[in-house]
Write a structure and sequence with these properties.
Blueprint (H helix, E strand, L loop, with lengths): L11 H23 L7 H10 L5 H23 L6 H17 L11 H6 L1
Helix pairs in contact: 1-2, 3-4
Length: 120
C-alpha cells in the first residue's frame, strides 16, 4: 500500500480483514434473507463475531455448535421437567458448564443459548 495509508494506521492486514469481514457479512445477510429467516440480522452479527475473534474461526464455530447442541439437549430435558423454576434453570446452566469441561470444550460454555431459549 502507498505510504499515505500508513499514517492513519491502515496496513495491508487491516485492509484485508475489513474486506473479508465485509464480504462474509454481506453474503450471510443475503443468504439469511433469501432463506426468509425471521431474525435474519443475526447472521451478519454472528459472522462478525466469529471472523473478528482471536480464536481460529473454525475452532470457534465448532465450539459454538457444540455449546448450542449441549444447551439444546439439556434444555429439552429441563423443559420436560414438571416443576420449572429458577433452581432448575440454575442447575441446567451448571450442568452445561460441567459437560463442557468433561468434553474439553470450555469456550463453548458461553455458547449454549438453547438452554435459555427452551426455558423462556
Amino acid at each position: 500500500m502507498p505510504t499515505w495509508t500508513a499514517r492513519p494506521g491502515l496496513t495491508r492486514d487491516a485492509f484485508i480483514t475489513a474486506a473479508r469481514t465485509t464480504i462474509a457479512t454481506v453474503i450471510s445477510l443475503l443468504l439469511a434473507r433469501s432463506l426468509k429467516l425471521p431474525e435474519f440480522y443475526w447472521a451478519p452479527i454472528s459472522a462478525i463475531v466469529i471472523l473478528l475473534s482471536t480464536i481460529n474461526p473454525l475452532a470457534l464455530a465448532w465450539q459454538r455448535f457444540a455449546g448450542t447442541a449441549v444447551g439444546a439437549v439439556v434444555g429439552a430435558v429441563i423443559a420436560s421437567y414438571p416443576n420449572q423454576n429458577w433452581i432448575v434453570y440454575g442447575a441446567g446452566i451448571f450442568l452445561c458448564g460441567i459437560l463442557m469441561a468433561v468434553l474439553h470444550l470450555g469456550a463453548a460454555y458461553r455458547s449454549s443459548p438453547s438452554l435459555s431459549a427452551s426455558l423462556f
